[in-house]
Amino acid sequence: MTLNGWLQIAIYFAVLTALAAPLGRFMARTFDGERTFLTPVLGPIERGFYRVAGVDERTEQSWTGYAVAMLVFNAAGFFLLYAILRLQDVLPLNPQGMSALSPELAFNTAVSFATNTNWQNYGGESTLSYFSQMVGLTTQNFVSAATGVALLLAIIRGFARASAKTVGNFWVDMTRTTLYVLLPLSILLGLFLVWQGVPQNMAAYVDATTLEGAKQTISQGPAASQIAIKQLGTNGGGFWNANSAVPYENPTPLSNFVEMLAILLIPAALCVTFGRMVKDERQGWAIYAAMSVVFLACVAVSYWAEGSGNPLLHALGLSGGAMEGKEVRFGIANSSLWSVATTAASNGSVNAMHDSLTPLAGLMPILLMQLSEVIFGGVGSGLYGMLLYVIVAVFVAGLMVGRTPEYLGKKIEGREVKFALLGILVLPLFILGFMSIATVAPFGLSSVQDAGPHGFSEIMYLYSSSVGNNGSAFAGFTGNTPWYNITGGVSMLVGRYFMIIPVMAIAGALVAKKTAPASAGTFPTHGGLFVGLLVGVVIIVGGLTFFPALALGPIVEHLAMLAGQTF
Amino acid sequence: MLNHLRPALVLLGAFTLLTGVAYPFAMTGVAQAVFPKQANGSLVEQDGKVIGSSVMGQSFVSDRYFQSRPSATVGPDPADSSRSISAPYNAANSGGSNYGPTSKALIERVQADVEARKAQNPSQPVPMDLVTTSASGLDPHLSPEAALFQADRVARARGLAPDRVRELVERTVEPRTLGLLGEPRVNVLALNLALDELGAR
C-alpha cells in the first residue's frame, strides 16, 4: 500500500461523483422527452425509427405490456445473435477464417450478451470473426444496456406517478437510452481510446518478426468501438480473451482511469436521474451514499489485502504486492480498484486476473456479485435491484416503529414486499443450488483448475457471476463444457428475468397507488439514518446468506496462505 | 404479443444497422483519418519490416536483450492441433496463468524462476514482476527495478560499460501519467531498440 495508491483511489471516486451529477440530470431530461442539445441531431433519427417500427411515442403501456415488449425484444435479439454465431463461417468480415460456434457455446454466448452478462466462454481473438464482434456483440452491448435502463424507468415512474395505469413505453425508453446516452458517450470514449492506442481497423492479423528473429502474430480488429460500449453499458465482454488487461484494450494508465470511470459512470448517474424523476434529488443521493459506503469499504479491504501481498511469495525472497496476473502499468492499486468497480457494477471486464488475487481481495468481487449487483450495479439493473432492498429497508423500519411503511409517499404493502423478497431470494437459490451440485459431481469438478478451497471459490465465482449477470471469471476454470455452458446460461436467464418480472410487478402496483403527503410520522429517506439502515439490510439479507460458502472458500484459503500451506 | 413483433423486429434491425454496422465503420473511418498509427495497432517497423507493436509485449530470451516478464499464453501444438502448448507472448491468444495464491504449481514455478534470476545477478533482490506472469501474457513493460536488475547481464553480453546500460534504462523509464496515475515502467521493445542503437554507435 502506498500513499499514491490511496490518492489514485480517492481521485477516481471524486471524479466519478463530479460527473454523475450533470449526466444524471441530462438523462432525466432526455427520458422525460425534453429538448436537449442533442435533439436537433438525433431527433429526426428517433422519429424515423418510430415511424418504421409503427411506434406511437405518446401511447404508453401497462406494466404487463411493457414487460412483454421487453421480453419479445430480448428474445429476438437472442435469436439473431445465436444465428450469427452459428453461421459466422459463411458470413463476411472473417479474415482469420474462424469456424462456427458449437450449439452450446453459441447458446451460452447469446444468452450472455442478451442478458447484459457478457460471460466469455469463448476467446475473442481466437474464436470470433469481426462480423460476430460488431454486428452481433456490439449491437447487444447497446440494446441490453438500454433494456436495463428502460426497466429502471418503469419502476421510477411507479414511484413518481400517482393513481396512474401506465409505466411508460418500452420502445421509446429503449430507443432514447441508446440514441441520446449510449451512442454519443461511446463515440467520445471510442475515439479517446484510439488516441491512447486501441486499434480500430478491419485488417487481418499482422505477422511481425521480432528483433530476435522470432515470429509473432498480432491480432487486430474494430476494437475501440466495442470496448467503449462494453464499459459504458456495464457489459464487459472483451474484444480479446484477457479482456481489459490486454494492452490493445487498455494501453495506458490514462486509458485505464477513463475506462474505469466509464464502468461506473452511468449506474452512478442514474441515482441522480432517479432523484430528479421523483422530484427530490436528495433521495437519489441517499441511495448513492449507501452504494458508496459499501463500494469504498470493499475497495479498502481489497487494496489492503493486495498491498500486503502473498506471504508464500515473500518466503521466496520477493517483496511487495503479488504481481501474478497483473500488469506493470496498472500496478496493485489500479488492479484492486478495477476488480471492485467491475464487480460492483455488473460489468465484468478485468484488468487483472481475479483468479490470482489474494484470497480476501478475491472475496470482494464474489461478495459484490452475490449482493445481486446493487452497489451501483448494471446500467439500470443495479438501481432497480437496489430499490428492492429499499423496499425491504422501509418495511423493516416500519415494523420497528409499528407504522405502515412508506417510500416517496407510496404505501409499501404486502404485495410489494413479497415481490421484492422474491426478486432478492431467487438469486441465492440458483447460485447455491447449482454450486452444491457442481461441487460433488464429476462433470462439475473436472473444470476446476486449483485444488483446495480455491477450487471451491472458482465454482462459486462462476455461478455468482452468471446469476449476478456480471460476466467476470476466475478464469483458470474451464467454463466451456456442456454442463457449465447450459447451467451458466440458465443462471444468467434466471438472474436477469426472475428479478425483472418482480420489479415490473412492483412498478405496476405502485403506479396505481395514491401519493400520501409527508407527515410528522413519515420516516425520512434522504438522511444518514436511512443510508445506514439500507446498508445494513443489503449486508444482512444479501451477505449473510452466503457467509457459510464464503467461509469455506476465500476465508479458509486466506488462513491457509498465512499458515504457509499450498494445494 | 403479436402487436409487439413489428416494433421488436424493426427496432432490432434498425439498431443492428446503426450500432452494429454504421457505428463501428464510422469509428473506423474517423480513427483511420485522425489517429492512423494507433488505429492500425501502433506497429513498429525497422527496415520496412514489422518488428512488433509498441503497445503489445513480446518475448525476448537472449542475454543480449532485456527480457520481458514471464508469459502464460498458449498456442496450438504443431504436432496435434487439438492440444495447446506453452507459447509465451502469443498475441493472438491472450491470457494469464490464473493460478490461485495458494497454488503449489505457482509457488514452484516462481521458486525456479527466482533461483535462475539469482544466478544471473546475485547482488540484488529479485523484483516481483520479473518472476510473475502478467494478466494478458502480453505485458509490454517491466518495472524500472526489473530492468535495472538485468542491466549488468546485458552489458556483459554486449561488452558495454554497465553504467551506460543503466543510464539508458533510467532514460527510458516512463513516469506515472501526470505524476499520479499508474506505475513507473519501462517499455521493453523501446528499451531494446535503444540498446541496439547504443551498441551500433
Number of helices of chain B: 6
Please write the string of helix (H) and strand (E) elements of chain B.
Answer: HHEEEEHEHHEH
Globally, the shape of chain B reads extended
Poorly predicted residue ranges of chain A: none
Number of helices of chain A: 19
Number of strands of chain B: 6
- Mean of all residue-level pLDDT scores of chain A: 94
Helix % of chain B is 40-55%
Q: Write out the strand line-up for the largest beta sheet of chain A, numbering strands in chain order.
A: 1-2
Count of domains of chain B: 2
Which secondary-structure class do the elements of chain A indicate?
mainly alpha
Number of strand segments of chain A: 4
What class, by secondary structure content of chain B? Answer: alpha+beta
What Rg of chain A, in angstroms, do the CA atoms define?
Answer: 23 Å
Largest interface: A-B, 129 and 100 residues
In oligomeric terms, what are we looking at? heterodimer
Q: What is the rounded Rg of chain B?
A: 22 Å
InterPro entries (chain A): KdpA (IPR004623)
Keywords (chain A): Cell membrane, Ion transport, Membrane, Potassium, Potassium transport, Transmembrane, Transmembrane helix, Transport
Subcellular location (chain A): Cell membrane
GO molecular function (chain A): P-type potassium transmembrane transporter activity; potassium ion binding
Structural commentary:
The complex is a heterodimer of chains A (567) and B (201). In chain A, 64% of the residues lie in helices and 2% in strands. In chain A, helix 9 runs antiparallel to helix 10. Chain A has 567 residues and is mainly α. In chain A, the strands form two sheets. A two-stranded antiparallel sheet of chain A has the order 1-2. In chain A, strands 3-4 form a two-stranded antiparallel ribbon. The mean pLDDT of chain A is 94. Chain B is α+β, with helices and mostly antiparallel strands and 201 residues long. Chain B folds into two domains: 2-39; 43-71 and 99-200, no CATH class. Chain B contains six helices and six strands, in the order H-H-E-E-E-E-H-E-H-H-E-H. Chain B has helices at 5-34, 36-39, 104-120, 144-158, 162-172, 188-200; strands at residues 43-46, 49-53, 74-77, 80-86, 141-142, 186-187. The longest helix of chain B is centred in the first third of the chain and has 30 residues, at 5-34. Chain B is extended, with a radius of gyration of 22 Å. The termini of chain B are far apart. The model of chain B has no long low-confidence stretch (mean pLDDT 94). At the A-B interface, helix 1, helix 2, helix 3, helix 6 and helix 7 of A face helix 1, strand 2, helix 3, strand 5 and helix 6 of B.
